[in-house]
Task: structure prediction
Amino acid sequence: MTLEILTPDKKVFEGEATSVTLPGTLGFFEILNHHAPIISTLQDGKLTVRGSGKEEVFFIKGGVVEASNNIVTVLAEGIEQH
Result:
């Protein structure tokens, strides 16, 4: 699936991923390839991107996520990469 992580001032990540784990307002959840369409609010927390045998971790400051047709877009209010 294609993943984009955006903040108001820049694009933080764009690329292919096999899964992404997100800090939803009701708890962590994971989006995999061919996930059903979803829009969800996010809270402050750890966002983990997995793909190509590697894992990247970002710490987001709230936001929203939309997944549809194997395209996942995360709009975060702020972000730190670790």
Q: What stands out?
A: Strands lie at 2-6, 11-16, 19-24, 27-32, 38-42, 45-51, 54-60, 63-68, 71-76, 79-81. The CA atoms of residues 6 and 31 lie 17 Å apart.
